[in-house]
Amino acid sequence: MAQRLVFPDAYAAADLITFAGRAARAGDGAVHLRASGGTLVTAAAPLLRQGLLDSTPTIIGMRLLPVDPELDCDLVVEAALLQIAHDDAEAVELPETAVPPPLWSAAEVPRSGWSHAGTLDLAVLAERAQWGMSAVAHALPIDPGDLIVQAVRGKIWSAPDEDLGGLPRGVAFVARTLGFIGEDAEDVGVRTCGRWTRLTLRRGHVLLRGPAHLGMTEVRETGHVAALVD
Questions:
Q1: Which end of the chain is more exposed for a tag (fewer CB within 10 A), N or C?
Q2: Domain DUF8010 spans what residues (predicted)?
Q3: Would the pTM of this model clear 0.85, i.e. be above it?
């Protein structure tokens, strides 16, 4: 029998499959699964740098789900191979084999020491994501090769965006790609810790490692329960 992740309800199991499905269509198609103390941290990198000359920023999306308190794991799998167990809607079957951990999955995200750096309007985040995707589509020639696609994406998603407080436009792309942008209005909290910047949305976190971007408006607490310790 395949190894399983057991969740407290079918909703949480389906949530993981939805996240994995989105991750499978972007980046390297891998999802990092870390479970301990009843929490499953799921992470993927819809944007990642490929090669020394690639300007694409590596940006990680992270979502936290309740899971069996006795489960303890740390592995990377092909997202497209995760599936709901045929005999249990509250369990997700893992692939028979894991994949070699990509570099982004080894990054040590700080668990404490985060400082408030501002807020972003969710509607602005959604608009900049849509603008960037349109810009990529219009900039690509007919039948472009992989190198051209990567160059265009890198240029557009790595560009600092004034509407996002100087953060690279790719943070908006990752938030949209992984389903973190909902229909309800929301203030997106921005926090920094050393070279890390974190956007906290109700549906997940977007993490960028690079120069800290400051100068945004003061953060207003929205009542979101952030699983990453401040």
A1: N
A2: 2-100
A3: yes
Domains, the chain, ranges and CATH? 4-106 (3.10.150), 115-209 (no CATH)
> Which residues 6+ apart lie within 8 Å of 182 measured at CB?
122, 202, 203
C-beta separation of 131 from 144 below 8 A: no
Q: Which of 155, 159, 163, 174 is nearest to 128 (CA)?
A: 163
| Residue closest to 205 by CA, chosen among 162, 163, 157, 171 | 171
Token duo for residue 64:
């936290």
Among 2-16, 45-59, 202-216, the range of highest mean pLDDT:
2-16
Which secondary structure element, helix H or strand E, spans residue 23, and what is its range?
helix 10-24
Tell me: the pLDDT tens digits for 198-208?
999 999 999 99
Residues 12 and 67: beta-carbon distance below 8 Å: yes
- Cα separation, 99 vs 201, in Å, equals 29
Q: Say which residues have a Cβ less than 8 Å from residue 200's Cβ, sequence separation at least 6.
A: 188, 189, 190, 191, 224, 226, 228
CA quadruple 69, 63, 92, 108: dihedral sign: negative
